[in-house]
Amino acid sequence: MVTSPISPAPGVSSMYFAVAFMIVFALWYGIWGVLSAYLGCMIGAGVLADMPFSLNVIWSTADLWQALIPLTAFAYFKANIRLRTKRDWGIFLLFGCFLNNLIGALWGALTIVVVGMVPGTEFFVTFQNWFTGNIITTLVIVPFCLRYITPYIQQTKSYVQNYWI
Description:
The protein is mainly alpha-helical. The chain has six helices and no strands. The chain has helices at 18-29, 31-47, 53-59, 61-76, 86-114, 123-153. The model is unreliable at 1-6 (pLDDT under 50).
């Protein structure tokens, strides 16, 4: 996590590099990658940041959405995770970069505003910081991993064929 000089909210960073790996791992390891994203957020951004467990369970769902949405879209549209065609790129950009990060940022920012960790007046700054940082991180890391590392991952026993299990 890279935080800005003035962090918008507890557990929110301006550059959350984990989001890129959550997306890639979901596409490589199916539902196991999605569950790992959720549990990783609970531990890394929740437990280690002393977030109350009852909030952590709900708040960490933001990371679950950010990994589950691209996995579901790639499976539903039968897109190639190696991003071989313009269609594959379009599915990645829409579901693996924009929509998943939009929903994750909305979910996360709303959650911490609703419980009072962040004042309602800071919602937009929190959302904007979360969303923008994740878009940049996703665009820089995910396509490289999918194009150039996927062929090696697909040769391993841990790779999940057909996306789910």
